[in-house]
Design a protein that fits this description.
Structural class: alpha/beta
CATH architecture of the largest domain: 3-Layer(aba) Sandwich
Strand content: 15-25%
Oligomer: single chain
Number of domains: 2
Largest sheet: 6 strands, parallel
Order of helices and strands: EHHEEHEHEEHHEHEHEHEHEHEH
Helix content: 25-40%
CATH topology of the largest domain: Rossmann fold
CATH superfamily of the largest domain: Glycogen Phosphorylase B
Distance between the termini: 51 Å
Number of helices: 12
Number of strands: 12
Radius of gyration: 21 Å
CATH class of the largest domain: Alpha Beta
Strand order of the largest sheet: 3-2-1-4-5-6
Length: 334
């Protein structure tokens, strides 16, 4: 099928899984915008990302898949869209079937699933071998329908001065100065990867607060992860410079907080990709076992240091507090 880029009017891009995965789809969306300049781009995704991507300039419309109640409702909305192209970044049987029966002429997706016959542009790449970064795999989907594709990883997360000021007022309650010196530790990953231990982070925090006395440490995470943050805080003893903000911020507020921080420290999880998209100073903890490695899931920041086990692929206890302090010194004093 020959495609004339200027004749493509409507594109549907589908990624309906976790926050980090959705963030890493944004470069594909921006490359679609550059390649198909006349097209309206709709992002089929999950509502978990809703407030973070408000006003994202390369996305014209959103469909929140998890808010649709039935298969028929999903079919009606996708059929009504009259899309020229559908790109399945996160392949699933139901969405592949929906794109097929909705009559979308060009359907891009993996060649390696039992339902791959629903796609007519079948991508022959095995992501599980982790030879490339997830964002590269995503952009490569576009190469199956256009020769004019660049390997550029562009993110356009933005917020207003008004939004920052509102967050500044909110943080006053927690004795946080958004314009002051602070680092963020996001210790949980909700099962996305193998995590560094609370004991290691607690020892690191104790060393950090003794060395960087004018810095505060902000611990973030979900309500369920509050116990983890509290454990780290208790192990560090220095309660005065440690603030726990679990379940206090929505995703957009977290993004603004990350952008204002001096350093973001995390396991492989969604917020580390927000920090990467903002090109922040980052220390990430990644196992060495495929497909969880930094080669596929690392933060896309030019200012990041990733620490991984050297011997046992998944033994995160091989990373010690001194390793983290060395990385901190390199990034903060750079």
């Amino acid at each position: 099928m020959n495609i004339k880029n200027d004749e493509i009017k409507k594109i549907l891009i589908s990624r309906t899984d976790k926050i980090g995965d959705i963030i890493l789809t944004l470069p594909l969306i921006s490359e679609c915008r550059r390649t198909f300049r006349n097209a309206e781009i709709t992002f089929l995704t999950n509502s978990v990302i809703k407030n973070l991507l408000e006003g994202y300039e390369d996305i014209d419309k959103f469909i929140y898949y998890d808010e649709l109640q039935s298969f028929y409702e999903k079919y009606k909305i996708i059929k009504k869209g009259k899309y020229d192209i559908a790109i399945s970044v996160f392949p699933r049987f139901e969405s592949a079937l929906l794109f097929f029966i909705s009559g979308i002429k060009l359907r891009v997706g993996t060649a390696y699933r039992g339902y791959s016959f629903f796609y007519n542009k079948r991508v022959r790449e095995h992501r599980k071998i982790a030879e490339k970064h997830e964002s590269q795999y995503n952009i490569n989907l576009l190469k199956y329908i256009s020769e004019d594709v660049r390997d550029e990883f562009i993110f356009k997360l933005k917020y207003s001065t008004k939004e920052k000021n509102l967050l500044k007022n909110k943080l006053d309650e927690f004795n946080v100065n958004i314009d002051g010196n602070f680092i963020i530790i996001h210790p949980g990953s909700k099962g996305s990867a193998t995590d560094i231990s609370a004991e290691t982070l607690g020892k690191f925090v104790k060393q950090f607060t003794a060395t960087y006395k004018d810095f505060k440490i902000i611990l973030t995470g979900t309500k369920v992860e509050y116990g983890l943050s509290k454990k780290i805080s208790d192990l560090a003893f220095n309660q005065e410079n440690i603030i726990i903000l679990n379940n206090k911020l929505n995703l957009r507020e977290l993004m603004i907080l990350i952008d204002s921080s001096k350093l973001f420290i995390s396991n492989s999880t969604g917020p580390i990709h927000i920090a990467g998209a903002l090109n922040k100073n980052i220390i990430g903890f990644y196992p060495s076992k495929k497909p969880m490695t930094v080669s596929r899931w690392g933060p896309l920041s030019s200012n990041s240091i990733v620490l991984s086990p050297k011997n046992d692929d998944t033994d995160m206890n091989e990373i010690n507090p001194e390793d983290i302090m060395d990385a901190v010194n390199k990034l903060i004093n750079n």
